[in-house]
Amino acid sequence: MIESLLVANRGEIARRIIRTAKRLGVRAIAVHSEADADLPFVAEADEAVCVGPANPAQSYRNVEAILDAARSTGAQAIHPGYGFLSENAGFARTVESSGLVWVGPGADAIAAMGDKINARNLMAAAGVPVAPGTTEPAADLAAAVAAAAEIGYPVMVKAAAGGGGMGMGVATDETALRTEYDKVRSFAERMFGDGSVLIERYFPRVRHVEVQILGLADGRVVALGERECSVQRRNQKLVEESPSPAVGPELRERFLAAAVRAGEAVGYRNAGTVECLFDPGTNEFFFLEMNTRLQVEHPVTELVYGLDLVEEQLRVASGLAPTFDPDALTPRGHAIELRVNAEDPKRFLPGPGVISVWTEPVGEGVRVDSGYAAGNTVTPFYDSLMAKLIVSGADRAEAIERAKVAVAGFEIAGPKCNLPFFAELLEHPEFLSGDYDTRIVTHLR
Fold first, then answer.
1. What is the pLDDT of residue 164?
2. Which residues form a coiled coil (predicted)?
3. What are the backbone dihedrals phi and psi of residue 422, each rounded to the nearest 5 degrees, phi first?
4. What is the mean pLDDT of each run of 10 residues along the chain (445 residues)?
């Protein structure tokens, strides 16, 4: 096992990684911006280094500052968490060329999956189902119009270098396509430094189902079940659950087999997620993207499989075997994660502020992964995620009942908070039935 770990992230995910590292006897080193100096993850680390001002480009995305922190503290490995530099192939290469251990997939796998068009083509060649779409970037508006005419409206206009629900737009006809193409391309150039755009078939009624994979040190790729991620706002997830209420045994087998093929196609190592769109009307699913990192929603898989995925990541990075038998994986029960954000529960607009009250719920099957405490300030510089409320039960009905109680018992005052939205969702017949899709949030509004 590696002996010292620098966590190149912040908030709840940094705190969560630090917790596992310390349990394993690994020295945990935090990096933080000036704005985050008082957050819990900084205090809980064995050592902490300020890497710059609040602006992420000058701190959490500052490669030289992070590498300097690793050198000065004698860190042996770097865990990037999610977001920031976690899917930056150049950073992964730099870490490894500096003689440090990278806790994640190889740079080549990150690069291969980072370009959505290249990823689609690789997956199609590996026998993973992909939605009808372009096999190369739509070079200009005329090419986009021609592609959409061939695919058939409605279409999704996507930034090839995008991810996390960013850089996407839906066009129902050519007029809308002209608007969305320019909008997505300019956004992609600004955010990702790459204006490449792809055109895909858009499915109006679809579910978002993903599979957790883990590439082991011995070269095998295993699938750790699926997660339902269809409760979304602006194409970004709010609620995840495992197993998916829409996936039965035969379909699950197909999902997991496709995810393993996807991982094997790029020689995948460490934790990753194969995201798919599932059409419940036809029982077909299509590859959406591969997230080459630990996902925000990994705790639901941990609770269903009885694993610590961060520990498994560290073991893979250390060249060690997993804690579990890959040939005898047995999921148990049901788990649900609610992303507690500092945002308006109606319009989902960010609402940062000073936390005056922070009381986390407790009880059987209740877990809270939080990044804040009373007295901390949720600043406008970063993502609005404050905590993840994860509940588990023997079945979905029990998990939902526990979630209702936990939401009612979670007290936050100061910043805006979306807990009232979850209280509403957990009583809504569409969610309770399990028969919902990515439009469910608009149905509640």
1. 66
2. none
3. -65, -35
4. 98 98 98 98 98 98 98 98 96 98 97 91 95 91 95 94 82 95 93 90 92 98 98 94 97 98 98 96 93 98 98 98 96 98 96 98 98 98 97 98 98 98 98 97 89
Alpha-carbon torsion, ordered 338, 342, 345, 347, to 10 deg: -120
Q: HEC states along the chain?
A: CCCEEEECCCHHHHHHHHHHHHHCCCEEEEEEEHHHCCCHHHHHCCEEEEEECCCHHHCCCCHHHHHHHHHHHCCCEEECCCCCCCCCHHHHHHHHHCCCEECCCCHHHHHHHHCHHHHHHHHHHCCCCECCECCCCCCCHHHHHHHHHHHCCCEEEEECCCCCCCCEEEECCHHHHHHHHHHHHHHHHHHHCCCCEEEEECCCCCEEEEEEEEECCCCCEEEEEEEEEEEEECCEEEEEEECCCCCCHHHHHHHHHHHHHHHHHCCCCEEEEEEEEEECCCCEEEEEEEECCCCCCHHHHHHHHCCCHHHHHHHHHCCCCCCCCCCCCCCCCEEEEEEEECECCCCCCECCEECCEEECCCCCCEEEEECCCCCCEECCCCCCEEEEEEEEECCHHHHHHHHHHHHHHCEEECCCCCHHHHHHHCCCHHHHHCCCCCCHHHHHC
Catalytic residue check, 293: yes
**Sequence-distant (≥ 6) Cβ neighbours of residue 386 within 8 angstroms:** 12, 340, 341, 342, 370, 371, 372, 378, 412, 415, 417
Interior angle at CA 126, CA 255 and CA 188, nearest 5: 85
Q: How far apart are CA 128 and CA 130, in angstroms?
A: 6
Instruction: Determine which one of 207, 269, 293, 339 is catalytic.
Output: 293
Q: Which domains does the chain show, CATH number per domain?
A: 4-103 (3.40.50.20), 132-201 (3.30.1490.20), 207-444 (3.30.470.20)
- The total of other beta-carbon atoms located within 10 Å of residue 176's CB is 17
What confidence score (pLDDT) does residue 192 get? 86
**How far is it, in rounded angstroms, from Cα 22 to Cα 31?**
16
Q: Are the beta carbons of 4 and 76 closer than 8 angstroms?
A: yes
